[in-house]
Amino acid sequence: MSENEISFSDQLKKIAVKSLLGFQTVLVFGLGRRLGIFDYLQEKGSEETLEVSFTIDEIVQEMNLDPTYLDSWLHMAITCGLFELDDSCERCLKTAPYIYPLLVDRNNIFYMGDILGGFYYMAPYQSEFLENFKTGKRMDYFDLPYEVRIDVTKMSAILGKRVIEIFSNSCEESDKILQEGGFLLEIGCGYGFNLKNWVEKYPQAHFVGIDIDNQAIDHTKSLIAEHNWQEQVKVENIELNEYFQHYDFRKELRFDVVLLNQVLHEMEPKGNYRQLVFNDIYSLLKDEGILIVGETMIPGIFAPDQARYFEIMHKWFEVGIGSHFYDKDTFMEFIKTTPFKNAELIFDDRDYIWVISK
Ligand SMILES: C[S@@+](CC[C@H](N)C(=O)[O-])C[C@H]1O[C@@H](n2cnc3c(N)ncnc32)[C@H](O)[C@@H]1O
């Protein structure tokens, strides 16, 4: 058989092993997470090592779960590689080395728990998907349950951590301004996870976060109260244009940095809504201020070598809520329709941010 010839067994592995087991991994992981099994094991383990040994009886008793379901779930979870048999004790299991941290440790740079969790949440919406494929209809983001919306923004905040790193390494002047004080506005701050990372990075700066999701703003307020950040961080459940209309330019300073992290693709793509958003941002920024955009740039289907697996997943994951993404060229085209003069895509390894100025 020549090197390029397609073999049945390779094709079978591709679909039967990769896809079927992958699908089971999503389901098994998502269910285990909702049941709180991973939280239980994480609490049982130490901070240093995520390797935890346990018995089936222990989970049944501690978590009050049905033994038959648990046995079946664990069996599949072992097959999917989440757990392994632990030979050091009788009838024990353990979390799988290297793999398990990728599923539960948000500080791991290859952390994938929220992505698997996100796809798990897609499963119950298949009937809507079927209908929407035929009609082109979209689901409303706000019809998604609280549990889903909060997990989705945890995912964005992880991407946001790289945005902070790239910003602080490449935008020296703005970084210095925030270190010494300065004002940052996050539009679409969600549940506050991303804003929290910025406040921790720049404890001298002042922050405003706005979002149209009132439950998200309530959650952000509770984070602020928990850390006693009331003086430094203000948040409001308000749409940007309304915020702009009420902004008192005589009394309040404009912003040094405005941040849009994983928000733009969710904004209405039709008409000129996004242009209006950028007009408002332009007016709210100081003359030397910068707009930081953390967005997944997704090349089209016929530029496959340019797109990464994660980026394509992002597009597929959000198609049902009408998210609309750009690639580098279409984003530049969009910027030309706004008052901003400069937009630079800054890479750090494989991650990137847009830095946009007047
Ligand atoms: C994926 S979350 C990102 C949250 C946060 N920026 C982060 O990085 O963790 C997107 C957020 O944008 C908000 N959003 C969407 N459209 C918006 C708009 N037009 N104005 C303000 N917020 C908006 C949503 O409510 C949601 O909380």
Give a short overview.
The protein has 358 residues and is of the alpha/beta class. 50% of the residues lie in helices and 16% in strands.
Structural notes for this entry:
With 358 residues, the chain is α/β, with parallel strands linked by helices. The chain has two domains: 8-111, Arc Repressor Mutant, subunit A (Orthogonal Bundle), CATH 1.10.10; 131-357, Rossmann fold, CATH 3.40.50.150. It has helices at residues 8-35, 37-44, 56-63, 67-79, 99-104, 113-122, 126-135, 146-170, 172-180, 193-201, 214-227, 240-246, 273-284, 309-318, 328-336, and strands at residues 53-55, 83-86, 92-95, 183-187, 206-211, 233-237, 255-261, 285-294, 342-348, 351-357. The strands form two sheets. The protein has a seven-stranded mixed β-sheet with strand order 6-5-4-7-8-10-9, with helices on both faces. It has a three-stranded antiparallel β-sheet with strand order 1-3-2. A hairpin with a 5-residue loop joins strand 2 (83-86) and strand 3 (92-95). It starts with 7 loop residues before the first helix and ends with a strand. The mean pLDDT is 93. The chain binds S-adenosylmethionine.
List the main descriptive attributes of the protein structure presented here.
single chain; 358 residues; alpha/beta; Arc Repressor Mutant, subunit A; Rossmann fold; 2 domains; three-stranded antiparallel sheet; 15 helices; 10 strands; binds S-adenosylmethionine
